[in-house]
Write a structure and sequence with these properties.
- The structure holds two protein chains of two kinds.
- By secondary structure, chain A is α/β, with parallel strands linked by helices.
- Chain A is built from eleven helices and seven strands.
- In chain A, 45% of the residues lie in helices and 14% in strands.
- In chain A, helix 10 runs antiparallel to helix 11.
- Chain B is an alpha/beta fold.
- In chain B, 50% of the residues lie in helices and 15% in strands.
- A five-stranded mixed sheet of chain B has the order 2-1-3-11-4, sandwiched between helices.
- In chain B, helix 8 packs parallel to helix 9 and helix 15 runs antiparallel to helix 16.
- The longest helix of chain B has 21 residues.
- Chain B is globular.
- Classes of the chains: A alpha/beta, B alpha/beta.
- Chains A and B meet through helix 9, helix 10 and helix 11 of A and helix 4, helix 5, strand 8 and helix 8 of B.
């Protein structure tokens, strides 16, 4: 036990290197600029970068910090970044104001933990509004569906790492670890129904808006496709992955033609 | 004489072309399942054109892609399961159910050595079992509905394992990582043929006449192009009659269109009758389905789905055909079925 035959080990490493080099040659990395708020709720983006999940998916992601959502979304509108991990409330306000943002995944949301908070629902509502969603900018044609699925897959992997190996996960981004007593719930699912509740509470549905105005800005299918892809690749044995599948509300795959289709996407994990 | 015949043929061809060119067009989306075959029958037998509508068929690899095309105005009507249109409608899409395509069709498969413990017609045999499924598929929703109707607390007494595709469910059953799996056609026939698995039950055994894939269209198009949709349904009603009265030719048409083993199609369609191709809207079935989706906890907010079911297109189409052929038994049966289910 514990002995590794050097020859085999070297061969294995060489084979792995060939595969990696082959993949890198076959698929050029896609460069993306991802803005984020400097707080724990953005951790999935930071983890995906620190632990190499973006690169695994064939994405070269440059992380750009912003002090607040207003400045981040201004950069998004100006085309200075491609995507951003910004606050739910402010993002929905921007969408209601006519911004053609596409909400791709969720992120971290702080949970109220004070004793008095239990008596005051508005405390959690405020935290919900400050929770993170990852949003793609308008007019960024470079962000095709395949690219967004890869991005979502990387963020799901970050969430699985956080769920399964939290110490290892946080060791890569020590400065963003929630402080003692601070609870942050992470969920890569954009969760249309949660966003719809916030949308309703903030009174953002104007009379002239079509009934599907919000859903036209929430791309749950991207998250669902990314999730499907990981399940197909990894199986459903990981309880953390199974939990994400269980919570997702996705249109079911129906047909023989679709089985394994997503595996055909080139680059990234199978 | 030859010149006269040639001239007549040419005139006929020109007239035919003009006739086809003037017909209202409908772009119809579907997924490749055997019980969706009424589209192929109506197309092959020329019923769409005879009823006065020019139909172009588009096959989709998944329900979500089909619904996205419908939403993006790339289709005028489509059949993409029941769950998919319900999810879109509940999130605000303005779609309306106008007909159906398939009733029943889901099966529970198991390894042969597990059949004995799953025998009988009592759902209690599934208590304590681990069942693989594709979440929100018709089989998932209806089987849970059947368990609830039978008084079984499935959230406590049954373990469901969710998979991303029906192929993964079959694989899990084959490997023995689940006790049984909920799958839809033609997967259980393929699982029997390719892996030696067996059908333990058809979900119909526990929940007769449940709704599967529905015909759905953008509401605004229904309002502006009502006549075309009624003609479209008239053609499907006639296709249903053909399917009921011409089994062998129907099998050939389905096989040609779907490129699935002919024996599998014959077996599922006419021998075991695991699903029925039926254009009835099944309004009550859609409402039951929505209730089961909500009971399962998939969607917390209720929505008045009934506002998105319009049975009048189908009823008027059926009435029109019965007026033409009042003594036809199949059409009379369709009328009785409509009255019971809508």
């Amino acid at each position: 036990m514990g002995l590794v035959k050097p020859g085999i080990s070297a061969l294995t490493v060489l084979a792995a290197l060939f595969v990696l080099v082959g993949n890198a040659q076959a698929q050029p990395m896609r460069s993306l600029r991802l803005g984020y708020l400097e707080r724990s709720g953005s951790a999935l983006c930071l983890l995906a970068a620190a632990h190499g999940f973006f690169r695994e998916e064939g994405l070269e992601v440059a992380l750009i910090p912003f002090p607040d959502t207003a400045s981040g979304e201004a950069a998004l509108v100006a085309g200075k970044i491609d995507l951003g991990a910004f606050a739910v409330g402010a993002t929905l306000q921007a969408v209601a104001g006519g911004r053609k943002f596409r909400i791709i995944t969720g992120g971290g949301t702080e949970q109220s933990s004070g004793l008095l908070d239990e008596l005051d629902p508005s405390a959690q509502q405020g935290l919900d509004d400050r929770g993170i969603v990852v949003v793609a900018g308008e007019g960024t044609d470079a962000l095709d569906k395949t690219c967004l699925i890869k991005l979502a897959a990387a963020l799901i992997k970050a969430d699985l790492l956080l769920e399964n190996k939290p110490s290892r996960a946080w060791s890569g981004i020590v400065g963003y670890r929630p402080e003692t007593g601070q609870l942050v719930h992470f969920n890569p699912n954009p969760d249309y129904w949660h966003l719809a509740e916030v949308w309703k509470r903030l009174g953002l549905q104007a009379k002239e808006m079509p009934r599907d105005y919000l859903s036209n800005h929430v791309y749950e299918e991207i998250y669902c496709d990314a999730l499907d892809r990981l399940v197909l690749a990894q199986g459903a044995d990981d309880p953390a992955l199974q939990k994400l599948v269980h919570k997702a509300i996705c249109v079911p795959n129906c047909c023989p033609a679709n089985s394994g289709k997503l595996l055909a996407i080139q680059g990234g994990s199978p | 004489m030859k010149r006269i015949i040639s001239l007549l043929l040419m005139l006929t061809a020109i007239a035919g072309t003009c006739y086809g060119a003037n017909l209202p067009k409908l772009r119809v989306g579907y997924v490749p399942e055997p019980a969706h075959g009424l589209y192929f029958v109506a197309k092959e037998k020329g019923y769409f054109k005879e009823e006065g509508v020019d139909v172009e068929l588009f096959q989709f690899g998944s329900a979500s892609e089909g619904m996205a095309a419908l939403k993006a105005d790339k289709l005028d009507v489509g059949t993409f399961g029941t769950t998919a249109p319900l999810l879109f409608i509940s999130k605000g899409s303005e779609f309306t159910f106008i007909g159906g395509m398939m009733i029943g069709g889901q099966a529970i498969i198991a390894r042969p050595e597990r059949l004995a413990e799953l025998s009988g017609k009592n759902l209690k045999v599934y208590k304590g079992k681990k069942i693989g499924l594709v979440k929100l598929s018709t089989g998932d929703v209806i089987f849970k509905g059947a368990l609830k109707k039978a008084g079984i607390d499935y959230k406590k007494d049954v373990t469901f394992v969710e998979f991303g595709s029906v192929a993964s469910v079959v694989e899990a059953v084959n490997k023995g990582s689940v006790d049984a799996g909920l799958v839809y056609p033609p997967h259980f026939s393929l699982a029997e043929k390719n892996h030696g698995l067996k059908v333990a039950h058809y979900v119909e055994d526990f929940y007769p006449g449940y709704t599967c894939c529905r015909i759905v269209a953008p509401t605004k198009l229904l309002n502006t192009n009502a006549d075309a949709y009624q003609r479209f349904l008239s053609a499907l009603i006639r296709a249903y009659r053909f399917y009921k009265t011409n089994p062998e030719e129907t099998v050939k048409i389905y096989t040609k269109a779907l490129k699935i083993d002919e024996d599998i199609i014959r077996n599922e369609t006419y021998v075991k009758k695991v699903a029925e191709s039926n254009p009835d809207p099944l309004r009550k079935g859609i409402l039951d389905f929505w209730q089961h989706v909500r009971d399962a906890g998939y969607i917390s907010q209720d929505y008045p789905i009934d506002q998105h079911i319009n049975t009048s297109f189908y009823k008027q189409a059926l009435d029109g055909i019965i007026k033409r052929e009042p003594k036809d038994k199949v059409y009379q049966q369709m009328l009785a079925f409509y009255k019971k289910n809508n």
